[in-house]
Write a structure and sequence with these properties.
By secondary structure, the protein is α+β, with helices and mostly antiparallel strands. Helix content is 23%, strand content 21%. Strand 5 and strand 6 form a beta hairpin. The site of tetrahydrodeoxyuridine has 13 residues, from strand 2 and helix 2.
């Protein structure tokens, strides 16, 4: 006789585009990515030597930049993505974001493949999508090489904790 089983399986799935270089992007995405690459020079990263640049194209057409800002007291440092989101929310409150391009210049090594946002930044991106009710596309690439395009930043954080979990 078989046992009663109440467990169910669920799956999380998402797909994303991988381009072999920025040449395969449309003109707007290419321009945004190259701004992110350029703005890495404004990062303050004397401890890690890992200079990150993030540039957002807002739904109102404006562009806002962010870079990582480190500190001798290491945990005080802030990632480029959260510098960027804080700046957007302060300058254009309530404004949704269509796309964020993120690049980096690793002064200790290579910068030729995409990196994706750290865990804390994924949580911040999710909250920004939720508060503006608008998905944020991500364009990820180093200074050269492959480019990843994701349609919704929060896909990077499955089974996320969010504002709804705090409601009574
Ligand atoms: N960093 C970012 O700014 N964004 C990321 O997505 C990954 C990491 C920064 C934090 C720190 O200043 C340096 O890169 C090395 O971790």
């Amino acid at each position: 006789m078989s046992k009663m089983v109440f467990m169910s399986k669920k799956e999380f799935h998402f797909s994303f585009d991988v381009h072999s270089s920025d040449k395969e992007l449309n003109a707007a995405d290419n321009a945004l990515l190259n701004e992110a690459r350029k703005v890495t020079k404004n990062a303050y990263a004397p401890y890690s030597n890992f200079h990150v640049g993030a540039v957002a194209k807002l739904s109102n057409g404006e562009t806002v930049v962010g870079t990582n800002q480190e500190n001798a007291s290491y945990p005080v440092g802030i990632c480029a993505e959260r510098v960027l989101l804080s700046s957007i929310a302060s300058r254009y409150p309530g404004q949704s974001v269509d796309t964020i391009a993120i690049s980096y210049d690793n002064k200790n090594g290579k910068s030729n493949e995409p990196v994706s946002p750290c865990g804390i930044c994924r949580q911040s991106l999710l909250e920004y999508e939720e508060r503006t009710k608008h998905p944020i596309r991500l364009i990820l690439s180093g200074l050269t090489g492959e480019v990843i395009v994701l349609e919704k930043a929060s896909q990077l954080l499955p089974l996320a904790f969010g504002g709804n979990d705090l409601r009574s």
